[in-house]
Write a structure and sequence with these properties.
Blueprint (H helix, E strand, L loop, with lengths): L1 H24 L31 H16 L17 H6 L8 H9 L3 H27 L38
């Protein structure tokens, strides 16, 4: 038994020394990510999320302001009782340059805007030009190239013998030019 102990002693001392050295110098440091302090992974996670609804103060205030705006709009004061438009009434539009009850910008626009007859002439001219452009486009879209009949063997005209041919059995091909 003493022989056995003598044989085991060196190995046990080596193991003991290596464990002591490993425990001091090469132990892996503890990291915070591997700790047991993970919050929000199970218990206590219910209070992390708020309940969303349309009864928050933002939506309540939006609904109140929208309702007030819709109800108050008909009772707001109007800037002018004279509504002018060059397309609805050209005479009133031309008179609005001298009406001081209208805003300045409206009077300036009434002075700058041409008469209704000018707009009618411009629209007619534009209509004529549009019709011409449409007809031209249609012409080019419907145009087709002439059909070309290509012969598979154009040398077939020159294969037959010019001798011993019956009269009227062939057409005169002397001016024929074969194009490839």
């Amino acid at each position: 038994m003493s022989v056995r102990l003598n044989m085991l002693r060196p190995t046990t001392s080596i193991i003991r020394n290596s464990l002591a050295v490993r425990g001091i110098s090469t132990s892996t440091p503890k990291r915070a990510s591997h700790d047991d302090s993970h919050h929000g992974h199970g218990e206590g996670a219910e209070d992390a999320y708020t309940t969303e609804s349309f009864f928050t103060p933002f939506w309540r205030n939006t609904l109140i302001l929208t309702t007030i705006s819709i109800l108050a709009y008909p009772y707001l004061p109007s800037t002018s009782t004279n509504t002018t438009s060059p397309s609805l009434d050209p005479e009133t539009w031309s008179k609005s340059t001298k009406d001081n009850s209208l805003p300045v910008v409206t009077r300036l626009l009434a002075q700058i805007t041409p008469k209704a007859e000018v707009w009618t002439q411009r629209n007619d001219k534009h209509l004529e030009l549009s019709k011409e452009a449409a007809e031209t486009k249609l012409l080019f879209q419907e145009a087709e190239r002439p059909k070309v009949l290509r012969m598979r063997y154009p040398s077939s005209f020159e294969q037959a013998s010019p001798h011993n041919i019956a009269v009227g059995s062939q057409a005169d091909l002397t001016d024929l030019k074969v194009q490839l």
